[in-house]
C-alpha cells in the first residue's frame, strides 16, 4: 500500500487531458459508439476502435490498452462497464473495470491516468456512486496521478463533495 495518488478533478473534455492514459468505460465488444468512447474515436481516430476490436471480446474485469491515435495521451485503456453497447452498468461492474484499468496502467508503467465517471452515463449508475468506487480503488494504486474528468459542472461538484467526504485531498483544473 503506497501513498494515495495525487487526485485532480478536471472540468473539461477527457480527450484533451494530458495524461499517460485515458480510460474508456467500454462494452465487452469494444465497439466505440457513443458517450466517452464515441468522443475518443472522433478525436483520436478510427484506428483506436479497430485496434481495440481486434482484442475483443473482453469480460467485465478485464482491460486492454490501445494506442491513443491523435490524442495527447499515450494509451487508451478500455475496460468494460457494460455487457452490450447501451447496456446497464452496476457498482460491481464499475469496481471490476476500475481495478482492471489500474492494473493495466501499472503493467504499462504509467505515471498518470484519467477516468471519466465510469458507468455513470449510458450505464445508469449515479455519478456519486461511480466516483466513490473509483476513489476507493485508487487508494491502493502506485500510479502517481489520477484525474477524474467531466464536462459537466454539476458532476464536478459531486466529484468534490465525494472526495471531501472521503477525506481525499484534491486540486481542481480546467482543460
TrEMBL record:
The signal peptide annotation in the UniProt record is none
Provide the Macro domain boundaries. Answer: 1-167
Please give the superkingdom of this protein's source: Archaea
CDD domains referenced in this protein's UniProt entry, alphabetically: Macro_Ttha0132-like
SUPFAM superfamilies per UniProt: Macro domain-like (SSF52949)
PANTHER family in the cross-refs:
GANGLIOSIDE INDUCED DIFFERENTIATION ASSOCIATED PROTEIN 2-RELATED (PTHR11106), MACRO DOMAIN-CONTAINING PROTEIN (PTHR11106:SF111)
**This protein is called what?**
Macro domain-containing protein
Q: Which organism is it from?
A: Candidatus Korarchaeum cryptofilum
- What phylogenetic lineage does the species belong to? Archaea, Thermoproteota, Candidatus Korarchaeia, Candidatus Korarchaeales, Candidatus Korarchaeaceae
Amino acid at each position: 500500500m503506497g501513498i494515495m495518488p495525487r487526485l485532480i478533478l478536471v472540468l473539461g473534455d477527457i480527450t484533451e487531458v494530458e495524461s499517460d492514459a485515458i480510460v474508456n468505460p467500454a462494452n465487452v465488444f469494444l465497439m466505440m459508439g457513443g458517450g466517452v468512447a464515441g468522443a475518443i474515436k472522433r478525436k483520436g481516430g478510427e484506428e483506436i476502435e479497430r485496434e481495440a476490436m481486434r482484442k475483443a471480446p473482453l469480460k467485465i474485469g478485464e482491460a486492454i490498452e490501445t494506442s491513443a491515435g491523435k490524442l495527447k495521451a499515450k494509451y487508451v485503456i478500455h475496460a468494460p462497464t457494460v455487457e452490450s453497447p447501451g447496456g446497464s452498468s452496476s457498482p460491481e461492474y464499475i469496481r471490476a473495470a476500475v481495478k482492471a484499468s489500474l492494473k493495466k496502467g501499472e503493467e504499462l508503467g504509467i505515471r498518470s491516468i484519467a477516468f471519466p465517471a465510469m458507468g455513470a452515463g449510458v450505464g445508469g449508475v449515479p455519478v456519486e456512486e461511480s466516483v466513490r468506487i473509483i476513489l476507493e480503488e485508487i487508494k491502493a494504486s502506485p500510479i502517481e496521478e489520477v484525474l477524474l474528468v467531466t464536462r459537466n459542472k454539476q458532476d464536478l461538484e459531486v466529484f468534490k463533495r465525494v472526495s471531501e467526504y472521503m477525506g481525499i485531498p484534491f486540486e481542481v483544473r480546467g482543460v
